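Hi team,

Filling in the usual template for the complex we talked about on Friday. All components are listed, including any nucleic acid strands or ligand strings, so the model treats them as one assembly.

SUBMITTER: L.P.
PURPOSE: interface mapping
COMPONENTS: two
RESIDUES: 657
SEQUENCES:
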Amino acid sequence: MSTSQGLRAWLLTEEPTSRRQARMAAWYKGWLTLRSNTLAMLGLMVLVVLLLAAIFAPLLATHDPFAQDLGQRLLAPGEGGHLLGTDSLGRDIYSRLLYGARISIYIVALVVMVAPVVGLIVGTVAGYAGGWIDVLLMRMTDIFLAFPRLILALAFVAALGAGIENAVLAISLTAWPPYARIARAETLTIRNSDYIHAIRLQGAGPLRIVTQHIWPLCISSLVIRVTLDMAGIILTAAGLGFLGLGAQPPSPEWGAMISEGRKYILDSWWVATIPGIAIFSISLAFNLLGDGLRDVLDPKEGQS
Amino acid sequence: MADQNANQTGGRLGPPVPLWARKSLATVATVAATLLGLLFVTFMIGRVMPIDPVLAVIGERATQEQYDATFRELGLDQPLLVQFGIYVGDVLQGEFGKSIRTGQEVTTDIARVFPATLELATLGTLIGVILGVPLGVLAAVRRGSWIDQVARFVGLIGYSMPIFWLGLVGLLIFYGILGWVAGPGRLGIFYQGIVEPITGMILVDAALRGEWTVFRNAFSHIILPAALLGYYSLAYISRMTRSFMLEQLNSEYVTTARVKGLSERHVIWGHAFRNIRIQLVTVIALAYANLLEGSVLTEIIFAWPGLGSYITTSLLANDMNSVLGGTIVIGTIFVGINIFSDLLYRFFDPRAK
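RESULT (copied from the run log):
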C-alpha cells in the first residue's frame, strides 16, 4: 500500500526532478483524465476484450471455425450446442467470430503501421522543407484527398488482386493524406519556434531536427486522429470483405461472413446479423476511445 | 497551396490583373492539376493490372500477328508518357473504351446507370439536411440537454455502423417482417416500362408524367435505401451544424444581441444561424459527394441499378474499362463538389476576401 502511495505521490508531484518523472507524470495525469471518462473506458474495455478473444481464440472456441457439418446447417443460436448458431455450411458462428477478431486486429495493425507513418513523413518533409517540395507534396496529398476513398480502394484492389494484404495496402493508400495534412500543420507551427532555431545553431541537420524534434510533437495529434479513423478503417475493410475483395473464403472475416449470410437474411437472420454486431461494437469502441483520447491529449478540441 | 503560389505569381505581375481573375485562374489550375492527378492514378492502376489489355480485346486464341497489330493499335509500343497523353485525350473526349461485360461504350453505360445513383443520393441528402440541421442547431442551443445527448448518440452510431449491415437489417425488419416497404430493386416488375424516361430519375419522371401509381411504387422502393443514406449524412451534418452553432453562440455579438433584449428565436435564427449558412452549404455539398460514393455498398444490398453496382459488378468481372471510367466519373464529381464549396466560401464569406 505504502509503495503504491509513494508511486502515486511521485507521479503527481508538482516539481518533477527528472525528465523521466515529468514524462511519466504527464502520462499518469492523462490516464486519470481518461479514466474519469466512462464512455472512453467502456470503449477501452471492449477493445481489451477483443484483443483477449483474438489471443485466446483456440481456447475459447467451442468448435473448429472451418469445420463444416451440413447436417447442422443454419441452426438458430443456442441449438445443438452452438452458442450463436451455425451458418449455411454448418460452421459454428461463435468460433468463427473469435477467429475473425484475429483478422480484424491484423488488418488494423497493418494499416496503422503504414498510413500514419507515410503521412508523418510526407507532412513533416513538406512543412519543414517548404518551397516547391511543399507545393508538390501537398498537391499530391490534395489529389488523394479529393478521391472518393472506397472507390479508390476498390480500384486498387481490382488492380492488385483480392486479398487481405492488398485490401490493407489499398486502405493505407487512401488513408494517409489526412495524416500528412495534420503533420504539416504541426510542423509549420513548430518550425519557427525558438528551440528549433537553437538546435539549428548547434549544428543539427534537417534530418535530425525533423526526426528528433518535430516528430515527437506531431505524435499526439496523429494518435487522436488514428484512433478516430480506426472505426472508418474497420468499416472499409469490412466493406471490402463484404464485396468479396478482402479476405477470401473460408476465412472468417466479419465482412465476408455478413456477405455469406446475406442470402439467408429473411429466414436465418443470425448468420448476417451477428458478425455485424461485432463490427459495430468494435468501431463504436474505437470512436468512444478516440473521443476520450482527444479530451486528454487535446483539451481545446474536445470542448467544441 | 497552389492558390498561394498563384497569388505570389500574380503579385509579381502587378496590380493590372484584377483579383477575381487571378483567383479564378488559380482555381482553374488547381482543378486541372487535381483532375490530371486523378487520371494519372487511374492510368497507373490500369497499367499494373495483371490482365493483358491486348488479350482482353482479341481473346486468347488470336495469332501472334493479330496480337502485335492490336498491341500497336492500342499504343502499347509507345513510351509510358505518350500512352498517358493518348489516355488523357480519350478521356477528355468522353471515351473510356468499351465495356467487356456489356459490350457497350462505357460512357453509354454510365449515362444509363448514373441517374439512379443521383436520385438515391439526392433523396438521401434531402433527408439528412431536413433532419440534421434542426437537430444540430437544437443540440447546440440546448447544450448538455437530452437533445444534445440524442444528437451525440445518433452521430456515434452513424460513424460506427457498417452501412451494408444496417441495410440488411433494415430489409429484414421493414421488408421481411413488417412489410412496410418494397424489397430490393428500383421498381416493381409490373410497373416497369410504363413511364418514358425524361431525366432517368423515376420519381421525377413519374411525377412529370402524372403516373402516380408508378410514383408510389418507386417511392416504396427508394425510401429505405434513401433513409439509410440519409441517416449517414444526418450524422455528419448534425455534428457539424452543432459545432458551427456553438462557435457562433459563444461569440460576443450573440451576447450583445441578448443584452439588447432580442428574443431567443431571433438571436438563434436571425443572428447565429445566418452566419453559419455558408459553412453549412459547404458541409452539405461534401455530404452529398460522400453519399454519391457511399452509395456503392448500399446499392449492392438493395440491388439498386446505379453507378456503385455498375462499378462493383464490373470489378468482379475484371472489366477494367468500366471500373476506371466509373472511378473517373465519381472522382470528377467529387473534385467538382469540393471546388464548388471552396468557391462558395471564397465568394460569399467576406472574411475570405
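MY TAKE: Chain A touches chain B through 48 residues (CB under 8 Å). Chain A has one domain: 90-304.

Thanks, L.
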